[in-house]
Design goal:
globular, 101 residues
Length: 101
């Protein structure tokens, strides 16, 4: 998985691409660190270019949900498609994380 970041006054957008899987766990601390930006109220994961999410990737999303919740930041998953969307739907992640389609 690769990611790029765009920041505004109250929102951080992370644009994900490739595959979100177990081998990406080393990137998670870098993404969590973004949450320490003062004034952030929304953290958007744009998955428009994400092609696949495995169970470890879903686990990383749940860790991000916990981290954002602790900081009173709204986590939003946006632009899920294809296999990534199917994985999220099967895991019922929409019950825990806001999904914008």
């Amino acid at each position: 998985m690769n990611f790029q970041v765009r920041r505004s006054s109250e929102t951080i957008e992370v644009f994900l691409s490739g595959r979100l899987e177990f081998t990406d766990h080393d990137s998670l601390p870098d993404i969590v660190e973004l949450l320490n930006n003062e004034g952030t109220r929304r953290f958007i994961l744009d998955a428009g270019d994400l092609t696949f999410i495995d169970s470890a990737g879903i686990g990383m999303l749940l860790i991000l949900q916990d981290e954002t919740e602790q900081r009173n930041i709204k986590l939003i998953l946006r632009n899920l498609r294809g296999d990534a969307l199917r994985s999220i739907d099967l895991a019922r992640i929409g019950e825990l994380i806001a999904i914008e389609r």
